[in-house]
């Protein structure tokens, strides 16, 4: 064992993520609602933020850390300067999000509500889209979201 970070989180750690773009960066999250950015060369967090709810899923791409969990909110964090600052927030699902994947410029989220949704990462990070929450604010995003339920019913809705 190289390192044992026995006090990394208060409670279970449910997500770990890294990216080839920044090989020294590792992110962790869990039941305590903390998202921590670690420099793999150190034992201390390089940055951290309290989300307020348990975090079940993490993804990373191009200097952005994406988290989601119990509240169904997908949060995008700017990690380019070695700290963690909120870049955008979106009420993506009405139930907990258990999975996140970034493919190219698209963020995919999967929820216990039976839906899979995809979001245009560039659009979410535009300055006018910053800090938007609530399903009632869907009009703020002028791109398409694909939503599929477990029965493989895939549809597109313009939000």
Automatic annotation (TrEMBL):
PROSITE patterns, per database record: WD_REPEATS_2 (PS50082), WD_REPEATS_REGION (PS50294)
Record GO cellular component, one term: catalytic step 2 spliceosome
GO terms for biological process, alphabetical: mRNA splicing, via spliceosome
UniProtKB keywords: Cytoplasm, Repeat, WD repeat
SMART domains according to UniProt: WD40
Taxonomy, superkingdom: Eukaryota
WD repeat segments: 6-48, 65-87, 90-122
Location relative to the cell: Cytoplasm
Family: Belongs to the WD repeat MORG1 family.
Protein name stated in the entry: Guanine nucleotide-binding protein subunit beta-like protein
Species the sequence originates in: Prymnesium parvum (Toxic golden alga)
